[in-house]
Amino acid sequence: MAEQVCMILFQVKCAQILLEAGAKVDALDKNKNTALHYAAGYGRKECVALLLENGAAVTLQNLDGKTPIDVAKLNSQHEVLKLLEKDAFL
């Protein structure tokens, strides 16, 4: 629970500590969103970069069938979209 709260709040330092302690980078919430979905949607570039560096999957779909790339597009998060697309090798 604490790991999801910190990641959802986009506290980069907290996320870094949790990842170093073994938190699952692709943990899912009840709607199958990952921390990367949230960070992408809110334009948290630093958090997106940290999650990608730690192996977050850009292709995981939530219950709506949306990937973090889709979420970034829907929310006009252009800078984040560049990071995600680069990681997805598009």
TrEMBL record:
<dbReference type="Pfam" id="PF12796">
    <property type="entry name" value="Ank_2"/>
</dbReference>
<dbReference type="InterPro" id="IPR036770">
    <property type="entry name" value="Ankyrin_rpt-contain_sf"/>
</dbReference>
<dbReference type="GO" id="GO:0005886">
    <property type="term" value="C:plasma membrane"/>
</dbReference>
<keyword id="KW-0677">Repeat</keyword>
<feature type="repeat" description="ANK">
    <location>
        <begin position="31"/>
        <end position="63"/>
    </location>
</feature>
<dbReference type="InterPro" id="IPR002110">
    <property type="entry name" value="Ankyrin_rpt"/>
</dbReference>
<keyword id="KW-0040">ANK repeat</keyword>
<protein>
    <submittedName>
        <fullName>Putative ankyrin repeat-containing domain-containing protein</fullName>
    </submittedName>
</protein>
